[in-house]
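It is worth pausing here to work through a concrete case rather than discussing structure prediction in the abstract. The textbook approach is simple: state the sequence, then state the predicted structure, then interpret. We follow exactly that order.
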Amino acid sequence: MADESNNTTDTYELSFRVPRARRSVPRARAMVRAVLGAWDVAPETAADAELVLSELVTNAVAARAPRDRQVGIRVERRHDASLRVEVGDTNAAEPQRRDPAPGDEGGYGLLLVDALAHRWGTERRACGIGKTVWVQLPAPESEPASEATAAALTVRPGQRVHTHGAWRTVRTVRSEPYATGGLALVLGLDEGPALRVPAATVLALRSGDGPHR
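Step two, the predicted structure:
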C-alpha cells in the first residue's frame, strides 16, 4: 500500500492504493478513520466519509478489471472543512444506482452515497484507463435543508420523520434483517409505535429543532 499525505494552511490531502481484494475495504476504512481524526474532522462528517468510502471501494474491488490492478483512493479536507472522497479503478463503466425492492440483499450502496453526498459523479482517470468516482460531503457547519427526503438507512436520532400524518422525533435507530433477506430499519419515535420500514424507503425528514405539527 503506497500513500502520500500533505497539507497547506487549511487543506489536507491523503492518497493511497489498495489491492483489489475484499480485505482492502476494512483496511481502507481504518486508514481514513485515523487520518480524519488527525485532521479534526467533525465526527458526523467522518462517519459519513467512512460509509461512502466503504461503498465505493466495495464496488471498485468487485468491478471487472485485470487482477494485477489496484484501487486508488484520495481524500481531501478542504479549506471550508468539506471533504472530497475519490475512488478510482480500471473499469471504465459508470456506476448505476439501483432502487432495490423490499427483500433485496444488495443494491443499497449508491443509494446511500446519493443520500449522504452534497454532490457526486464520475470522471475519466488521468492515466486514461478506467474511471474515478468522486463524492463531496458538506462541511459540518453547513445549514441543512429544513425539510428533505432521504432513504431510511440514513436517518439519525434527533431528526423528525413524517409518519401517519404527523411529524415525530426519532429517538432510536436500529437495523434488523427480513426473514426473506434484505434490511429493515426500526425507528423508535417520541410518540406512538416504532416505525419499521425497508432500508431503501424514502422518508420526509426535518431537523429536530422545528415546531411540531
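Step three, interpretation. The longest strand covers residues 166-177. The chain has two domains: 3-137, 147-206.
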